[in-house]
Design a protein that fits this description.
42% helix, Sulfotransferase family protein, Sulfotransferase, sulfotransferase activity, 6% strand, mainly alpha
């Protein structure tokens, strides 16, 4: 698409907390592979638990390039490397508020329900060790910096 046409569009993106996104991806992969044997997330199921997946499976290359779990900011960059200032960015954690703020621009936008919610999901502070928190903070530093994310437990943010 040429630049003039691109500039005429209203653009928005929804990003997600990297710690929550990684845990969700691990849990989703378990279900996805049961349904689709050739799932591109199949490699994740080779790790016996979430901690192994984060500590041994997640690498800088995966965090920077993997289409499904790589840094989200990479999808919002212009060829110059800067985040496109014309993209309005919202957070999944505050999705309804974000969508409500877009209603004047997109009047057909309505409430969004929850789909694919993981049953039996534990709170993040129960599934992440200090070492895991630090590793995700390092791997997803571009997202954390660009979108202002912190681990959702204030005592761990002082690390």
């Amino acid at each position: 698409m040429n630049r003039a046409k691109y500039n005429r569009y209203f653009k928005f993106a929804v990003v997600r907390n990297p710690w929550d996104r990684l845990y969700s991806t691990f849990r989703y992969a378990e279900r996805d592979v049961q349904r689709y044997k050739s799932s591109p997330l199949e490699w994740i199921t080779h790790f016996p638990d979430f901690e192994s997946f984060v500590m041994q499976g997640m690498t800088e290359e995966i965090a920077s390039r993997h289409y499904f779990i790589g840094c989200q900011v990479n999808y919002l960059r212009l060829p110059s490397g800067e985040v496109d200032p014309d993209i309005t960015i919202g957070k999944l954690e505050m999705l309804q508020e974000f969508l409500s703020s877009l209603t004047p621009l997109l009047p057909r936008l309505t409430e969004v329900g929850v789909r694919n919610a993981s049953p039996g999901r534990q709170p993040l502070h129960e599934v992440y060790s200090v070492e895991m928190i630090i590793k995700v903070r390092q791997l997803f530093a571009p997202d954390i910096h660009e979108f202002g994310y912190v681990f959702p437990n204030s005592e761990h943010n002082k690390l």
